[in-house]
């Protein structure tokens, strides 16, 4: 296994009644090696310390932040977030942090999908702001940051395709990305385009992490994609994964978001990801090995 592979992860609300038991069981079965954690404002330090101590030793972490890294149009500077980022770094030592690239959650009180969520503007001005903020984060953050491809809920200012936006963003920042399949699909469906339209232009080689969840096409016209965190991964998503993986040459991790899901859904989704991820990593390692022999 190459050293920069984190493996398969699970995103699960820590306050769910069965969370600890399900995480322990998934880890015991070898189905996941890391947990994507959401650290909501209403979690007390005592609750978090208790949970942290009760999680499996050896389990690793990725932090899904909630506004601390917000890229575009944020008020204040990233430097203002440093005490909070340092606090999370010291308690959880996350391998990296991720956060959807959106304009804002007003008041930073709500999660993606809430009406307060303002989606990314695909404009030159917004790209400039995102690049500036990303470069500031890269210089200052003690935790690496992988921006997440966000969900699109409505047509918006659209000076360039989402794939173009992220290609240009990566060219100017060198950032690694968290690619959410349902979110990319949501953008293309709104444009009445095929689900993976323009994927050839997307910087898949910069994708460090892939995010999957249950989900479905949400209307008769096929214009919307609805994430369903309680549901099993849709075969459509599996097909997308098969198409993408060979080109994700820098992939380090893949996780499933299972919020409020029955335990069987959690294990089922993790098994699918394991089945797809490890052959991909092995093929990549074999390819690198052959390269060394021939060099
Ligand atoms: Fe996210």
Structure summarized in a few sentences:
By secondary structure, this protein is α/β, with parallel strands linked by helices.
Which tags fit this structure?
TIM Barrel; two-stranded antiparallel sheet; binds fe (ii) ion; globular; 11 strands; 295 residues; 9-stranded mixed beta sheet; alpha/beta
The fraction of residues assigned to DSSP E strands is 15-25%
CATH superfamily: Divalent-metal-dependent TIM barrel enzymes
What is the domain total for the residues? 1
CATH class (first level) name? Alpha Beta
Mean pLDDT: 91
User: Which fold does the CATH topology refer to?
Assistant: TIM Barrel
The gross shape turns out to be globular
What is the H/E order? EHEHEHEEEHEHEHEEHEH
**Bound compounds:** fe (ii) ion
Major sheet, described briefly? 9 strands, mixed
Structural class of the secondary elements? Answer: alpha/beta
- The low-confidence runs, each spanning 5 or more residues with pLDDT under 50, are none
Q: Write the CATH architecture name.
A: Alpha-Beta Barrel
Let me know the number of strands: 11
The helix content is: 25-40%
Protein name: DUF692 family protein
Pfam families: MbnB_TglH_ChrH
Organism: Janthinobacterium fluminis
């Amino acid at each position: 296994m190459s050293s920069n592979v984190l493996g398969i992860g699970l995103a699960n609300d820590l306050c769910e009644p069965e969370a600890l038991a399900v995480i322990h069981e998934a880890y015991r079965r070898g189905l996941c090696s890391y947990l994507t954690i959401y650290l909501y404002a209403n979690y007390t330090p005592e609750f978090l310390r208790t949970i942290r101590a009760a999680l499996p030793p050896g389990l690793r972490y990725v932090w899904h932040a909630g506004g601390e890294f917000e890229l575009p149009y944020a008020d204040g500077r990233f430097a203002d977030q440093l005490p909070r980022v340092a606090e999370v770094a010291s308690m959880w030592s996350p391998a990296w942090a991720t956060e959807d690239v959106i304009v804002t959650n007003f008041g930073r009180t709500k999660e993606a999908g809430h009406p307060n969520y303002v989606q990314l503007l695909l404009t030159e001005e917004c790209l400039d702001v995102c690049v500036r903020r990303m470069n500031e984060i890269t210089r200052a953050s003690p935790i690496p940051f992988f921006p997440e491809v966000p969900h699109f809920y409505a047509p918006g200012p659209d000076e360039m395709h989402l794939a173009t936006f992220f290609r240009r963003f990566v060219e100017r920042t060198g950032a690694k990305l968290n690619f959410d399949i349902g979110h990319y699909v949501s953008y293309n469906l709104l444009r009445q385009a095929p689900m993976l339209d323009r994927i050839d232009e997307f910087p898949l080689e910069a994708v460090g992490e892939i995010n999957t969840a249950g989900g479905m096409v949400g209307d008769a016209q096929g214009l919307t994609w609805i994430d369903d965190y309680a549901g099993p991964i849709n075969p459509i998503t599996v097909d997308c994964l098969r198409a993408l993986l060979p080109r994700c040459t820098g992939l380090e991790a893949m996780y499933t978001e299972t919020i409020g899901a029955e335990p069987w859904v959690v294990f089922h989704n993790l098994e699918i990801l394991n089945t797809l991820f490890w052959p991909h990593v092995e093929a990549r390692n074999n390819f690198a090995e052959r390269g060394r022999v021939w060099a």
